[in-house]
Amino acid sequence: MVDLFSLIKDYLVDQEDGIRHLITWFLNLVMEEEALLQVGAQRYERTDSRKASRNGYKPRTLLTKYGELELLKPQFREFPFETQVFEKYSRVEQAILSAVAESYLQGVSTRRVDKVMTALGVEGISASSVSRITKELDEKVSEFLSKPIEHEIPLFVY
């Protein structure tokens, strides 16, 4: 018997443009969360605990098996932004795909998103941040799923 999870994951992988867009979006979101942790405050928030000021983004590319991803790396005025995304991406690529495939099947698990973030080296992230990322990932997957199918899908009958 064919594993439904594997079929869906294969379908998502075949949709290279869609999965490339989804992974780009997710990794940019991870870097935003890393930036929040390093700065110590939300964007535009005035607080004594703020460690740095934001200074836009620097375009960076990441080569994956789905092609080159164009990412936006946050910048600070006071010190360089450090991210684990570029160093650890290849190790967690499968975890990201699994999270996307799982969200396709049964909705996104906050535990799964937290594991992916931890594997990327983003630790100490709040439960509310993980929940927000989970909600946004679920919305992106729903948007992806509602797009019309542009080619024929073979029908399997047992």
From TrEMBL:
Presence of the UniProt keyword Metal-binding in the record:
no
Q: Which GO terms describe its molecular function?
A: DNA binding; transposase activity
* Alphabetized UniProt keyword annotations: DNA recombination, DNA-binding, Transposition
**Keyword DNA-binding tagged:** yes
| One BP term from GO | DNA transposition
Q: Provide the transmembrane region boundaries.
A: none
The cross-references to Pfam families, in alphabetical order and at most eight, read:
Transposase_mut
**Protein name, UniProt field:** Mobile element protein
From the broadest rank down, the organism's phylogenetic lineage runs: Archaea, Methanobacteriati, Methanobacteriota, Stenosarchaea group, Methanomicrobia
